Every structure is written in C-alpha cells, then in structure tokens.
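User: Show me an example of a complex going from sequences to structure tokens.

Assistant: Sure. Here are the input components:
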Amino acid sequence: MNKDQISDLILKNISFSYYEKNNKKIILDNFNCKIKKGKFTSIIGPSGTGKTSLLKLIAGLIEPEKGEIKFENQTLKKVINQITLIQQNPSLMPWLNVYDNIILANSNNKKTNYKNVDKLIKDIGLGEFSAYFPHKLSGGLLQRVAIARALLFYPSLLLLDEPFAALDNLSREIISTELVSIIKKNSLTVLMVTHSIEEAALLSDEVLVTGIEPLRVIKKFNPPKSLNNQSWSNLGLRKSLQDKSFNGYLKSIRDTSYSILQKEK
Amino acid sequence: MIRGILIATTIFVIWEISCSFFNLPVFMLPPPSKVFSSIYINWDELIVHASYTLVEILASIAIGSLIGIKTALIISSSVTLKRWIMPILLASQSIPVFALAPLLILWLGYGMISKIVIGVLIVFFPITSNFTDALNKVPQELIDAGKTLNLSKIQLFWKIKIPSSLPGLCSGLRVAACFAPIGAVVGEWIGGSTGLGSFMIYSNARLQTDNMFAALLILIFMTITIYKITDYVLSRYVWWK
C-alpha cells in the first residue's frame, strides 16, 4: 500500500442497524469501502437504503455497531475535526444572519482570518446577503450559506448528502460548478450521496453504485480519460453533456443502476 | 392600541346603559361613570396600593423566571433528575394557591415576601414547563449541523440549544406576565393592609363596590401593560420560531 492509499477514507466491516416498530432493520452489514484521498466520489442508489446513515457514521453523528472507519491512517475520533457534512436541508440557525451562520464554528476562534471569511462569502456569491437572516433567503442561497459554513471549517473530508436536491436546475448547475471548483482548488476529499446519476457522473472522479438491504457497493465507475481534464466551468459541464464518451459513461452507470434495482426489488 | 380603546369604550358604554336601563343599585353594580369618579377621588390612595402590587408582580415575575429557567435547565440536562423533580413540581401545581396562601402568610408574615412567594409559585411552572419542552425539542438537524462543525458540548449548548429554545421560554414568560397579578392579589386578599387586593377587601367590607371596581380596573390596566411590554420586548429580541 502506498502513502496515498493509506491516507484514503477506509470503511472496514461496518455494521449498523436500528429498530423500527420492534423490528431490527439492518442498514449496513460488514460494509467495506475505500474512498480515494483528494478525489470526488459519489454514491448512487435508491432512497431509504442507508446512504445517509453511512455519511452520518463517517461524520461521527452515529456510532457503528462494529467495524472501523479510518482516514489519513487515523481512527475517526482523531480526525473528526477534519470532517464535515453538508446536508440536503441547509440547517441554518434562524437567529443568526448569513455572516454569523458562516462563522458559527469559528466565532470564538481567535485564529479566524476574517479576510478569508469575506473572500469566501464573496466567492460563493453571498456578498450582498451577508447581513440577511435565513428566512429572507431562497433555497439556493440557503444552500450556498451551508456550503460556505462547511468550507470555512477547512475540512480535509467533505461529506455531501444530496446537497443540491432541493434546488432548481439552474441553481443546481451554478452552485455545483462553484462548489466543485473550490473543491478542486483545495484538493479536498469528497464523498457525495445523490439520486442524480447525471450529477454523480458529471462531478465525480469515481461513482459507486450501491445495492440495497444491506447497503453495499456493487460496481465502481470512473469517467473516461477524455473527461478527466475538463475545466470545471458551466461551459465545461454543458460540453460534457454533448460529449459522446460522456454520454456512453452516463448510460453505463444508468443501465447498471436500473439492473441492480430490478434485481434487488 | 386603537382596537383596545374601541373595545374598552364599547364595554363601558354597554355597561353604563345597562346600569341605567335596569336601574341597578350602585352597591350591586356601579356604572363606569361612578367607577371613574371613584378612581379620581381615591387616586392618591389607589396609586400607593397599586405601587405595592406592581412591585410584588414584578418581583414574582423576576424571581419566578429565574427559578423556572434554572429548573428547566436542570430537568432537561438529565432524565434521572427529571424523574425525581417532575413529580414534586406537578404536586406543587396540584395544590390550589388559594389553599396555600393562608399558610404562606402565617409562615412568612403579612409583608410583601409572602405575596411574592405566592406569585412565584404561580409564575415559575409555566416558565419551567415551556422552557423544558423547548430545550427537549431543539431540532436534531441543528444539533447535527453543530456537531459536524465540531462544536464542543458547551458550544452546542450556548450557540444552538439555548437560542433555539428561547421562543419556548418567551411563551412561558408571556403566560407568567398574565398570571403573576393573580398571586399578588390573592396574597393581598388573605392578609396585609397594602396593595390593590387589600384595598378591594377593605372596600368590599364597606359595600363600596365602586372602589372595588376602581381597584379592579387599575389591576386590569397594570396586567395588560405588563403583558404588552413583555410581549414587545420578547418579540423584538426573540423574533425567530
């Protein structure tokens, strides 16, 4: 194993279940997976199969019954301060304005560089909204705040739980492009859960297609080489959609996902 | 404000006409004109009594709030503590304050302290109940958001749990602002020579019903004013839900 592989996010023999009306529901049973450091990985699969639970386990919000999660060759407890999660619901504090929501984790930290905060707010398109309270913002802007808040945390591992699901198509394209460009610039390791096959194929370096009950990785996909060096701009994304090799890549993920769904239903 | 004045004026007009129409004796139901004249005549005395009652009400709200908030924080911090403390709180609320008041006057004397304690007993429970409920119902997604930002337990408490529960506390404070005058007046009815309650008992014994109504109107005005100020301040500073 080389140094990079050791630094990967490694999930080893993870089991997790919960009780629903006295019935034990097994979500993960000896789940194994490796997420490459510095890469954008997406997990796609049907809803209600435990993908969110998987992210919550990695974020330390829930504990596995057994198994081990390691990142940068360290146990989860030691690296938990390098991991953050952006959820589908932006979960902003309604009593704080945009600026205070963004610096929520850093407000008491004397080392916080407020010039960086201002730059980040500007970069993510929230410049004129920094004094606004969440109830005055649209869904797209709320999600931008959640993204800015997570990025200011300077994570090494960013977990995304359907972050663009509540957005309209245009906001989805703009925000995802901005987020990916920031992610690429900072070489963050990203694990995203999504229902959108197209989104996963467009944004990710690796796509994991999962099976249901219990959740497990059935197949991995990597984009064709011709797409690897695309610039992360709106134009790049639109070009990707017209690209023949991209369309073939997208079709193979889609076909696999549907065949798994048909088989396991 | 205008709506309040209109409602009050309508009530007074109907009241005045009814008294005159049914020719009711003044000691049974004095017309508002007689009540306002009593306020004018007894103004100096009423103001002194009202100031005692006001101090008792404000002290009850302040002390009751502190005890209510502290109790809610203790209860919500531990399930075991909640199991021990909650039955005591419920028992304290099942005894009517009218039954406790004579005992408290006996133990604490005829002064202000007994009346404030009666007020505190009435006030603290709605605050405890509303605030505990709010603390236990902080949306999990906000707690999770804080945890994923690596906030410590203390930071989660001060930065998320407390602000998120403040609307619940405010509901309790609004109820307290309405109920506090009951405690003060019940205490004054039972013992002592100061306060609007004692003025009412004194007037009742002498069939000075207009004086009783005068004290009652001042008490209503005080209660509405306290509630409105409380509501204004709380709505201004705790506007989120």
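The lines above are the inputs; the final block is the predicted structure for all two components together. The CA atoms of residues 2 and 8 of chain B lie 10 Å apart.
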